[in-house]
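[job 0417] fold request received: Kettin
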Amino acid sequence: RLLREVSFRETITRRYVGESDIQISTEIDRTLGAVAPPKIAQKPRNSKLQEGADAQFNVQLSGNPKPRVTWFRNGQRLVNSNKHEIVTTHNQTTLRVKNTQKSDSGHYTLLAENPNGCIVTSAYLAVESPQETYAQDHKSQYIMDTQQTETEERVEIVEKALAPQFVKVCQDRDVTEGKLTRFDCRVTGRPYPEVTWFINDRQIRDDYNHKILVNESGNHALMITNVDRSDSGVVTCVARNKSGETSFQCRLNVIEKEQVVAPKFVERFSTLSVREGEPVALNARAVGTPTPRITWQKDG
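[job 0417] inference complete; emitting structure tokens
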């Protein structure tokens, strides 16, 4: 499963020769402040348009080194073309979908990455034909302000929002110090929820030992490649969007790795002389960690 996750991430983010962002930048820009993983300052907004109009998603983000950004539609990577225009500055990225058609409807997701971590954020685009009426659209709800003091009615169309909900969570576990473990979960919601991991109320970010994985199907994972005693405790996963927040917890019990001690004999047998046919008992005892396995040999 881990190999499939890595293969999926590599497939959808793969760059080709000639692309300017073929590699993630490792250059630290002092004008961007301290070294930090990517962070979303302004999320993209859901959009509802008629066919023929242009859609635009704006995201403000930060990070040092400068994050590499990748846009997706329903899990498929987007590149600059006659249909899609991607413009990225030092603190903002914009995706423009030109001359939208009903086939352009879907979830548009931004993935921002630098050597210190990654983050995703999504928005939904609904494109309808001119013949469709608002009453036929089951994806939207209508909020009408009919206050008598106003001279005009204001109609606000908003995408029906769904609070986050975990449909798969992980269980308590015991892991030996130094081993690899992985916590998997799956979450639903609209807009797509942001997921954050904590160990003992300390937020976990991508580092040499902790890897945060996510794919476009709503599957999230926290992988600890080399479990340490400091990882022992309560693992919390929090999912939130504008409609609400939910979380679950499980316990990680780290079993201390035994110190390896070479075997040592603490009781030895000595040379014995016995008559033929008489029984003989040879006793030996050894200690060590792990417990030594003793075998007997005669004449080698």
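[job 0417] notes: Residues 133-159 have pLDDT under 50 and may be disordered. The two ends are 48 Å apart (CA to CA).
[job 0417] exit 0
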